[in-house]
Write a structure and sequence with these properties.
Length: 557
């Protein structure tokens, strides 16, 4: 692409000829259209009555969910502005663990209104300056609306908050059950001294079969593996545990080699020598009186026989993640060389046993030396049900993590967002901190905030105009107390009804939405290089000319 020349000047090539360049008002319109399109996709999933999305990828695999983060992750988004919004939703999920749908809806609705403000002559920089003031004020309002909780005494509030996170993802009769499981797991994983809840201490395993109500919480670690040898013990009490990241077998040569044996005696001597080497490896475990061995790699048949004869329970090919969790729970250290293992590396657990769950055998480590680790084994009729139940449980745990660490909550069911909208409009009318144009921006953001309770009402099938008007009227008198209960279809006192949201989720929705909108508002030009042909990519990667480079599989709607 050449720069625009002055009279008599020679054009100068700045960009490649295959580079596309968009600028001006059309860029902003396109970014807004992308944001609105994403918001429209996920808007119908908001609330307990939200609808599901059925996503089919290029291989024909399907995902059924109404979890905003999952939907956006499965979409094959190509527009750069849409990609930025998807990244914002992931940031919301990573930071707060919930509210991904709300943040996308808020961004889309606000940018849609901003488009009209720009058409009226309000410069994007004026809007971004106003957003800084709006963000600061909204967080002040949010502090006024929040109240503190005692994680020891206010168990019911915490469970209600978990139920709110599960509302749109699980059947109504199962929500309280899963919320209580999530609460017990979160409470076990919370460290009051550091004021930190480590989600890595909570393991979630899916097992198809039975119903959601058959889901269990294991106070310890459960791994989806079985004991390697049928003659090994299947239960050990007061177990001494070793963790080894090494093949317990004779290492094979890196290159193919042939060994010629001249007699049967020589062959037998070779076999005996191999057994002796394996026994030397295993003898260290026997001498340390190890009861249970978890090995991240393989265990050869001779080693299995020796372990079984010495009453040692062994599990092989354990995932690295499970090894780390067992280490934290039992105090055992993961050793990479079995010859270096010593007494300090041995962990302890009150009970280790094998039990059949569904169609598979599993190994359970209970009463570990360091309590805190838990495992939730989710049961369900099909993979789609257990997948959604796992996503819901993860959301509930993240919500509880927010409350355990912040010890602050706000009203749910749209009560807090509606209160912020009302307070923002009132402040915009009275304040002298905002100019005339900035007040219009504040009113536009307040309207965008109202779109969240509006979507909840729409998804419940209620009359939006009547219910939203009544909700606005009640919130103006008692901010943060009244919300729309989509289950009953009525406006209720959220504190009495137990409809609770974590403070962190709402605060992060506001911050993420404003920061993302600010970034997009400051874009006035898009310069995009044309994707290279696959053959050229193959050459750059060192592939042969003419070789076919298959593109990575991407999930598409």
């Amino acid at each position: 692409m050449a720069a625009a020349p002055t009279t008599g000047a020679i054009p100068v090539l700045i960009l490649k000829e295959d580079t596309s360049r968009e600028r001006g008002r059309q860029v902003f319109h396109n970014n807004v259209a992308a944001a609105v399109a994403l918001a429209d996709i996920v808007k119908t999933t908001l609330g307990p009555r939200g609808m599901n999305k059925l996503l089919v990828d290029s291989l024909g695999d399907i995902v059924i969910t109404n979890d905003g983060a999952t939907i956006l992750d499965e979409l094959d988004v190509t527009h750069p502005a849409a990609k930025l919004i998807v990244q914002a939703s992931k940031s919301q999920d990573y930071t707060a663990g919930d509210g991904t749908t709300s943040v996308v809806v808020l961004i889309g609705e606000f940018l849609n209104r901003t488009d009209k403000l720009v058409d009226k002559g309000i410069h994007p920089i004026v809007i971004t300056n106003a957003l800084k003031k709006i963000r600061k004020k909204l967080l002040e309002f949010l502090d006024e609306l929040a109240w503190t909780v005692d994680i020891e005494k206010d168990k019911e509030i915490l469970i209600n908050a978990a139920v709110s996170a599960l509302n749109s993802k699980l059947p109504e009769e199962e929500r309280k059950f899963f919320a209580e499981l999530a609460y017990e797991a979160a409470k076990a994983a919370y460290d009051p001294e550091r004021n930190y809840l480590d989600p890595d201490l909570i393991n979630i395993i899916q097992k198809e079969g039975r119903t959601l109500r058959d889901t269990i919480l294991v106070r310890g670690v459960a791994i989806d593996k079985k004991v390697v040898h049928p003659e090994m013990p299947k239960i050990k009490k007061n177990a001494r545990i070793a963790l080894v990241d090494q093949n317990i077998e004779i290492e094979k040569a890196d290159v193919t080699s042939n060994v010629t044996v001249e007699s049967i005696e020589a062959l037998e001597e070779l076999r005996n020598r191999e057994k002796a080497l394996i026994r030397e490896m295993v003898q260290k475990l026997i001498d340390l009186k190890v009861d249970v061995l978890f090995c991240q790699r393989g265990i050869s048949e001779p080693a299995q026989d020796i372990l079984a004869k010495n009453g040692i329970m062994a599990v092989r090919r354990v995932r690295r993640k499970d090894m780390r969790l067992i280490s934290r729970a039992t105090g055992a250290k993961i050793v990479s060389n079995i010859e270096d293992i010593k007494e300090d590396d041995i962990g302890e657990a009150g009970l280790v046993y094998q039990k059949k769950v569904g169609e598979d055998q599993m190994v359970f480590i209970e009463q570990p030396k360091h309590p805190g680790a838990t495992t939730i084994i989710i049961r369900g009729a099909s993979k789609h049900i257990t997948d959604e139940a796992e996503r819901a449980t993860q959301d509930a745990i993240n919500v509880l993590k927010d409350i355990f660490e912040d010890k602050k909550v706000v009203g749910g069911a749209g009560a807090t967002v509606m209160a912020l909208a009302v307070k923002l409009k009132d402040w915009a009318e009275k304040t002298e901190e905002l100019s005339g144009k900035e007040k219009e921006v504040a009113r536009a953001f307040a309207d965008a905030l109202e779109s969240i309770p509006k979507a909840i009402i729409e998804n419940a099938g209620e009359d939006v105009i009547d219910v939203l008007g009544e909700l606005r009227s009640k919130v103006a008198k008692e901010p943060g107390r009244w919300g729309f209960d989509a289950i009953s279809g009525k406006i209720v006192d959220v504190r009495e009804k137990g409809l609770i949201d974590p403070y962190r989720v709402v605060a992060n929705i506001i911050t993420t939405a404003i920061e993302t909108a600010t970034t997009l508002l400051r874009v006035d030009e898009i310069i995009a290089s044309r994707p290279k042909p696959e053959k050229e990519k193959g050459k750059e990667r060192g592939g042969e000319e003419g070789s076919e480079i298959k593109p990575p599989i991407q999930r598409r709607l």
